[in-house]
Amino acid sequence: MSNLDTRPAPSLCGGTGRTGPVRDLQPGKQVPLGESTVVRRLLPNLGRRMVGAWCFVDHYGPDDIVDQPGMQVPPHPHMGLQTVSWLHAGEVLHRDSLGSLQTVRPRELGLMTSGGAIAHSEESPHGHGPLLHGAQLWVALPAEHRHTAAHFEHHTDLPRVTGGNGGLTATVVLGELDGAVSPGTTYSPLVGADLALTATTDTRLPLDPDFEYAALTISGETEVDGVRLAPGALLYLGCGRTDLPLRAHSDSSLMLLGGVPFEEQIVMWWNFVGRTHEEIAEARSDWMDTTRFGTVHGYAGPRLPAPDLPPVVLKPRGRER
């Protein structure tokens, strides 16, 4: 997924110290995406830029797309990150400059590692279903892996963790949770899990105290560590937790995101994660003028032009609240 903001602000991330457990509700904002989709952008935001290596979170839907084109995101570039596609309803057709062509369906992992350069498009396929609901997330690649070879993975069989006398089922999307490990490739210690809870479930989920965590509510009414959350909310939970209290007031679902705090300083601008202004400027120029990012074949429309760089030098700094 692309950041389609025509004036994207630089996100100066990383280099934060560890916090203890907190309950910090993060504001999101409505952002148009493509021709007909509006998303709730929850990360980065004015209060927090990253959770572990997770650096970007969009939640969208459930949207009625019976008479709509659905998701239509033209070819666009990525650098220095991984994209994670996660659906609860609908289908997304992924194409990329490696030649990948894959339809991602609910509870399947679509994972694209950009390395130094890749381009892709995302669209609701012809004959798509009536609803579109899911999340798109980015993971920042650490310095030693940010130029790894670009590749795309599609995993349909993901491990699960159960609890709450059967009232909790956690699908491990990426990383590790309670001993269950996703087959998706990771480059730093992290977790992304989809938690499904039945109504009246009251349980605790084991966590790694070295990780910082956040919870993204997808559907239903859930209490996370005593904080009642509506769908589309992001609650930052800090570090130092050995477990997480969960209570479901209705059948509900949420995503748990976590990881070791990302100590590197990075610059995130548009669809690029880099370390210097010069690196970001070069990537933008290469997308506009060279073949570095490759070509996405088969998308019915032009590729996405890059916005203008801001009139300031982009500098990597620690996270600022």
Textual characterization of the structure:
The protein has one helix spanning 277-289; strands spanning 11-13, 21-26, 29-33, 37-43, 54-64, 72-78, 81-89, 92-96, 101-104, 109-113, 118-123, 131-140, 151-155, 160-163, 168-177, 180-181, 190-197, 202-206, 212-219, 222-224, 227-229, 234-238, 243-248, 252-259, 266-269, 272-274. It has one domain: Jelly Rolls. The chain is built from one helix and 26 strands. Strand 8 and strand 9 form a beta hairpin. The chain is mainly β and 321 residues long. Strands 2, 14, 15, 16, 17, 19, 22 and 24 form an eight-stranded antiparallel sheet that branches.
Number of domains: 1
**Which runs of at least 5 residues are low in confidence (pLDDT < 50)?**
11-16
The count of helical stretches stands at 1
What string, H for helix and E for strand, traces the elements in order? Answer: EEEEEEEEEEEEEEEEEEEEEEEEEEH
The named CATH superfamily:
Jelly Rolls
Distance between the termini: 26 Å
Give the radius of gyration. Answer: 19 Å
Shape: globular
What helical percentage do the residues reach? under 10%
CATH architecture: Sandwich
Domain Pirin C-terminal: 193-290
Protein name: Pirin
Pfam family, one: Pirin
Family: Belongs to the pirin family.
